[in-house]
Amino acid sequence: MKKIFLLFLCSMVALATEAQVKWTEGSTDAIHEQAVKSGKLVFIDLYADWCGPCQMMNNRVFMDREVGEFFAQHFVAAKYNIERPTGRKLMQLYGKGSIPLYLVFNTEGELLGSILGAYPKKEFLHHLEQIIAQKKEAR
Prior knowledge:
Number of strands: 4
Shape: globular
Distance between the termini: 58 Å
Number of helices: 6
Structural class: alpha+beta
Largest sheet: 4 strands, mixed
Strand order of the largest sheet: 2-1-3-4
Order of helices and strands: HHEHHEHEEH
Helix content: 55-70%
């Protein structure tokens, strides 16, 4: 009985880790290069550890299976803390001082759109779908 429970518990942990958004680590150049190779857009999450809405997005939205699958299909995703050099620079270039701030770039490095603030899953995905649709219309 204990073996069955442990097997069940391990499979649930594996499923939970598969469901979430996969964050890529590295410089913005490395993220861009990976996006070019994969033909995906770049998604950047600008956050801070002390930011409550940022934590809500991490715990509720980015851990969701549907969101994880959507990101796997469309994005190379990275997170940058605004209290560190890369995040601070991105915030200076693209931000208005508020977080969370989400940026979507094409493979040429052009900003396609941004989302400011925390949203429930469906509304957040809707914002991302609008940004992707605008990219397709611009072709």
